[in-house]
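Following up on my earlier thread - several people asked me to post the actual chain instead of describing it. Fair enough. Here it is, all 199 residues.
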Amino acid sequence: MKSKPLFPALELRSSLYAIRSFLIRHFQTLKDFKALLGKDFQFSKLKTKLNPKPINALTLTEFEQLVTKLDRNGNKAAQDFRDSLIGLSLHQLFCDAFGIKFEKEERQQYLAQRMQHRQHFHPYLTRWLKHDAGGDNKVVNWGWEVNHFKKACKLPLTGVDTWDYNLLQILNRAESGYNMLRIAGLKHDDAVAVIRTQH
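Reply from S.P.:
Thanks for posting it. Predicted structure:
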């Protein structure tokens, strides 16, 4: 028996915007979905407040399969989304095992921080450092720059996928601040120096 339809195929929530955009560009027909989900795949029909007429929809199980296939095919948005959900699941299991409170609001905040980091940090830093290098990625030491920024925020030099949402929140705020400082005209080193004084 199929799962209850939860996700309209082209009306995913904002945290899935990148996947939604990919689907719009590359999945125009039922045939496109069948290529990933199998020849027996058929859309479910779903009515929503925004669409009183039945629209094509994926069940939760089908959506999971679609994201998994996209992930394995190298789709960056799907990879980021699955990584964040895996991190959330493991954190939830850890909290359950040790009796740590981790309620709905905290779970939403945790996931939001993970997604925000993936959506904003690398594009901000990449864009400005690439701009500073005149578009030549080869002259930028990306690993060093990321760690340099983390040091300025007094954050661990470990991978962010191991961080809790409090650390991610600190990083995300610093990243947003860095972007605004660069927009205001500060050079990279000066913007990082300002960030350092705030932590």
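The two ends are 53 Å apart (CA to CA). That should answer part of your original question.
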